[in-house]
Amino acid sequence: MGEEKTFYQEYEIFSKRTPSSAFLHQYSLLAPNEEMALIMAQENFMRREPVADIWIVNRQNIKRMNADEKMTLGRLDNKDYRTTKGYGYLKKKWRQYEQEILDEKEILSWGGERK
Amino acid sequence: MSNEEAVMDPHYTEALKSLLFQLADDDFMYSFRGSEWLGLAPHIESDIAFSSISQDTMGHAAMYYKLLEDLGVGNADKLAHFRPANERKNSILTERVNGQGYYMETPHYDWAYAVARNYFYTQAKKVRIDSLCESSFKPLAEIAVKVRMELYYHKMHWDTWFKQLMSSTEVAKKKMADANKLVMIDFGDVFSYGNRKQQIETSGLIGSEEDLKERWKKNIEPLFITLQLQVPEIPESPVNNGRNGDHTSDLDEGLATLSEVCSLDSTAVW
User: Which residue of A has its CA nearest to B156?
Assistant: First the structure.
């Protein structure tokens, strides 16, 4: 996009439905300044929806990723050791050990003699 | 070449194994030193990012050790944990302690040194990985392609820290200049292949020492021009050459710490 100054600027509009919910990106619009952007966002896009708060961000103030920077988003799928899927296997392990105790000590003691 | 073909030619296999140990031991010690920063970095998000990078790098080391295992050299975990210092082929730079003190008590680690070491090491790793993507040994080239994917982000991370501190306050610049000097003292064996130089360079496994040094210099030159500084000189002959198993006492201490838990019960199933 050109660098020349224009009357209109691009604004990104964020809003949230309730005071405790997260902000969501909603739309972009053209406006001459933040105040105008706010009232236009409110009147045009949010009159039918419950809204608890609105953020207006000039697009120029957003740090975006260029193609090179997007290269840094790749990750390898070799991270089993970092993403433990819980300790579900422990139950099975306990059962196995309990079983062993039962087999060797218990059962032999019932018989009263060793092999 | 594939696994089977490589095993046939003993000359080639020797070069390959030596190179794999150099790559594995480098990333292994480097990520161990990185892991010692856990909870100590000067900023909560940088602490997490640094730890994440260290874990990624441990994953890279694991791939090289696994390849050695596939070549019949031994179990990957054992290669990582139980080889004595004089069999290790990592560069001296990767074994250096993080600063004064000990992780468990009063660590006075030097963040400037961490940033400088990570920056120069990652730049060197980038050059080596790019070259390895063209390796004559297919399984190694495949690993390099994978590592390169994560290296983009590691490099951007340390490039950003380095650039910012190098052009920050006078105190920061002074600390960084001191740290850069310390890093460069140990840089002499980073691009060295040690005694295996001739075998490795003729094997087509990776570019020559000189070639990689040149590319490293070319990659970092633009930043140093912006900073109006000279690109640091890599020492001609290192005091200790880690590639030949010639190490400092920092490595003994590091190995004792990192294998401590594993050594408590070496037959335990994890």
Answer: A72
